[in-house]
Amino acid sequence: MDTASRLREQHIETPSWAYGNSGTRFKVFAQQGVPRDPYEKLADAAQVHAFTGVAPTVALHIPWDKVDDYAHLAAHARDHGVAIGAINSNVFQDDDYKLGSVTHPDKAVRRKATDHLLECVEIMDATGSDTLKLWFSDGINYPGQDDLRARQDRLAESLKEVYDRLGDGQRFLLEYKLFEPAFYATDVPDWGTAYAHCLKLGPKAQVVVDTGHHAPGTNIEFIVAFLLREGKLGGFDFNSRFYADDDLMVGAADPFQLFRIMVEVIGGGGYGPHVAFMLDQCHNIEPKIPGQIRSVMNVQEATAKALLLDRHALATAQSEGDVLGANAVLMDAYNTDVRPMLASLRESMGLDPDPMGAYARSGYFEKICADRVGGAQAGWGA
Ligand code: AOS
Ligand code: ZN
Ligand code: ZN
Fold first, then answer.
1. Does the chain have fewer CB atoms within 10 Å around its N or its C terminus?
2. Ligand 1: which residue has its CA nearest to atom 7?
3. Does residue 64 line the site of ligand 1, with CB under 6 A?
């Protein structure tokens, strides 16, 4: 398949929470026209797909996107030309979870947390979603606060129950994060921990790599290459970081890293439906829909460059031990200006070549500002 066809088939998922108000623990800056409910979030996500052509699904977050009738919500998404993507669980915003959720020392709290995860699988059934995304804030702040090994046992027990509830064609993705909100020891702090749990469970459990969840200097593309090789890379939460889990726009901080990741994804056979390209971002100060459009374009650009990599020339240079030659082949791909190619790809898809400009000219922002008063908070930075 040629580069254009592969790019045309790309699928980048946007998160419902990117469309609501968000901020840091210091301040949430409310923006005009933000959605007041999950239905309006899906309508906004549909705009991102309408102008880019490659963002056909939207991740939900439960309970931020709680509705009475999930089948109805999924139908609403379809009416807008998008579908429901991953269901994100939330076992981190309840008073009961102060000492953990599925790793909490009290069995009753663990039961409550696991029941929420099972409820998320029911929502998958109702919406047609095939992916459950699990991120646990569980951990401890002080040495000695709880038993590190016992917490792993409790985690494994809960994951097993959820795994066994998954239907045919459903999977869960286990997300790791170095720290925050726990500061001393996080229960799923790294890809190795996530991988070990997923390996034990079976093929329906895979690891999701959030690009903002590593220590500075971590070679993320190595993790990607390794997990792909083991068939355990389920997807990405894309975003950018300068310091910690900043959730800034993907490709903004380090477009070269994004390119290197895409090189490994494509080289490892991960470019296709089995590895989900999701965005996990918050737009605290920039407008949200354009922020998502820009992010989708950044992923597209990195992908296009990685697809252009001359792998044959690279392999030859590598086998000859030509260090500088191999590096030059890689850099040639990275330094290619793919924007004209992507503009003509969009035209061939019946889209405006300039998604940012086309959205700005569409009048949608003016309309939502007039129609929507008192938009909802995304959930983060509350
Ligand atoms: C938290 O730090 C993680 O990145 C989560 O993936 C995510 O932000 C959350 O699941 C949003 O619902
Ligand atoms: Zn994430
Ligand atoms: Zn995160």
1. N
2. 280
3. no
